[in-house]
Design goal:
- By secondary structure, the protein is mostly helical.
- The protein starts with 14 loop residues before the first helix and ends in a 25-residue tail after the last helix.
Amino acid sequence: MGIFDNKYLKPFKNIYLLVFIVFAIWMLFFDAHSLLFHNELNSDIKELEYQKEHYKSEMEKDDKAIKELSTEEGIERAARENYYMKKPNEDIYIIEYEDSIAKQKKDE
């Protein structure tokens, strides 16, 4: 009785099948172009595409802000809202709502 008489080991008598199995294992796990490496690269590509879309949307927002600030009214509005600047003989009142004020700790 030989080692390949078992019904499960009989297909391994074929040398071509053995070579194919070794080749497949080598290509899937150990080669420079392995399946694991390709999965890692695909996940990197997806992440980079997400970042690309994010930066495109940020660029669109910045372009809109630049167009807005290119007019005299846009500059004046930005100066008033962000830097609390005012015209001469003008008063500014800053209104803060309760939910916009940071809550202080009770023990302070």
